[in-house]
Specification:
By secondary structure, the protein is mainly β. The chain has strands at 2-4, 7-8, 28-34, 40-48, 51-58, 61-66, 74-80, 87-92, 95-100, 106-110, 119-124, 133-136, 141-145, 152-156, 164-169, 175-179, 182-186, 192-197, 205-211, 220-223, 229-233, 241-245, 253-258, 267-271, 274-278, 284-288, 296-301, 315-319, 327-331, 335-341, 347-355, 366-369, 375-376, 383-388, 392-399, 405-412, 417-424. The chain is built from no helices and 37 strands. The chain starts with a strand and ends in a 21-residue tail after the last strand.
Length: 445
């Protein structure tokens, strides 16, 4: 741990607001953007026949877009559906499954003729509406957010064109994740995560119901490939994205938390040591989770230019599982973005901000990476974490009302971790204020 106290005094610091800047694109490059409709929702992806495709939900249907060349994307097919502001898509084998909240059933689309065509081969009426679906591909099982008394429907895809419902489960559901015979259900207004043994999908068994402390709405859940760590979102203002240790279901523990500038996170997805987050007006965020007890932002792309308001606009969906390594983002107002994350590992820094005179933590500051404009806010103990994707000189600037601005230069070594303590100095008093005090009649007092 290094302690630094090198500062540049800013005379009018008290007049400068502490800002979180919009429009930051950190370690991420835009490859393509397509905005052919007017109102969008989720996105997903598919690889087949040596080509890559994106599925983009919009108000009246699903656009199928060829992204084989990420710099030259184009629509190849369109599947119309019931008009709906909510639409979800998943794939199994060479089929696309589409649901919405307005009605019409589960649409099943044969993708085997792409890029020439995509054919709607069935609309299954066993599921009239649904907000979300998830397909456990190795098991050949679909989980669907249900209707009425069925919180979750468990559906066999043994015949991909003719699904068969096997069972139902749960008390409430918004989203879910399943792998290796275990199902994790984000239970919405119950503010809990239900964990089920679904090794026999016809007879699911509740293993654990975990209540999220001081929760918002239990919105979304994803689990690491080894099954030991779980991430959750709450789609509630000022409620964090949380990382949990679920290796022992009898001793689940909260390890770390994250929240971006808009203070309103949507959906999280895990791929290897990175998590990808759609964060509404703050765009898409990439979080380093290689140390589950110390997660932090290492990249991002802001799709919503008006700013970071805490509102349901901007980035709805993100899909990081393409075969060519590109990342898909769906923005509710502006369509599909195909982007590239520029680095797989980062220089990682943990820091702590303290008062140079008292040693007490300072949690009201913001830390700026000068080279890319990224802004990091400390937690209640004054601790912050950041990632930087370039080797060489990195400059930090720390702002806080009541303290001098701190400027620190570091040497970033890719793939390494460092720590630092930054002791903030109260402003120096240099000079006196002179003036004449008068009453409302301009008479000297």
């Amino acid at each position: 741990m290094r302690t630094v106290s090198g500062f540049k005094f800013v005379l009018f610091l008290v007049l400068i607001p502490v800002l979180v800047f919009a429009g930051r694109n950190v370690n991420v490059t835009l490859l393509s953007h397509l905005d052919s409709y007017g109102s969008y929702n989720d996105c997903w992806g598919y690889s087949g026949g040596g080509r890559e495709y994106a599925f983009l939900g919009e108000f009246s249907g699903v656009s199928i877009i060829d992204i084989t060349d990420p710099a030259g994307i184009y629509e190849v097919a369109y599947i119309p559906g019931f008009s709906s502001g909510w639409r979800d898509m998943k794939t199994f084998q060479n089929y696309l499954y589409i649901v919405n909240e307005s009605g019409g059933g589960l649409q099943i689309v044969d993708l085997s003729s792409l890029p020439t065509s995509a054919v709607l081969v069935n609309t299954w009426d066993g599921l009239f509406t649904s907000h979300n679906i998830f397909v456990d591909e190795p098991a050949g099982i679909m989980y669907a957010e249900g209707e009425g008394e069925a919180a979750v429907r468990v559906i066999s895809l043994a015949d991909p064109v003719n699904p068969v419902q096997l069972s139902t489960l749960g008390i409430e559901c918004h989203d879910f994740y399943a792998a290796n015979g275990r199902l994790f259900v984000a239970e919405g207004g119950q503010r809990s995560i239900g964990i089920y043994d679904v090794s026999n999908p016809a007879q699911p068994e509740l293993l654990k119901r975990m209540t999220i402390p001081n929760s918002g709405y239990a919105h979304n859940v994803w689990v690491s490939a080894d099954g030991n760590f779980m991430m959750t979102t709450e789609e509630t203002a000022h409620k964090t994205v949380k990382m949990w240790d679920v290796g022992n279901l009898q001793q689940i523990s909260l390890l770390s938390e994250y929240l971006g500038e808009s203070k309103l996170a949507h959906n999280i997805f895990i791929k290897n040591n990175l998590a990808y987050l759609s964060h509404y007006t703050s765009g898409m965020k990439i979080i380093d989770i290689s140390d589950p007890g110390n997660i932090f932002e290492v990249g991002g792309y802001d799709t919503y230019q008006p700013g970071d308001a805490t509102t349901f606009r901007g980035a709805w969906g993100v899909y990081p599982f393409t075969a060519n390594g590109s990342i898909l983002i769906s923005d509710m107002q502006s369509g599909l973005y195909v982007v590239d994350y520029n680095c797989s590992i980062s220089f990682c820094l943990q820091g702590r901000l303290t008062d140079a005179q008292t040693g007490e933590p300072v949690n009201t500051a913001v830390v700026e990476i000068v080279e890319n404009g990224a802004i990091i806010e400390p937690d209640s103990t004054g601790t912050f974490h950041l990632g930087y994707g370039r080797a060489g000189t990195m400059n930090l600037r720390v702002y806080s009302i009541g303290y001098e601005t701190a400027e620190i230069q570091l040497n970033a070594v890719i793939g390494t971790r460092d720590s630092i303590n930054i002791a903030l100095q109260p402003p120096q008093q240099t000079g006196a204020v002179q003036g004449l005090v008068q009453d409302s009649g301009f008479n000297p007092q």
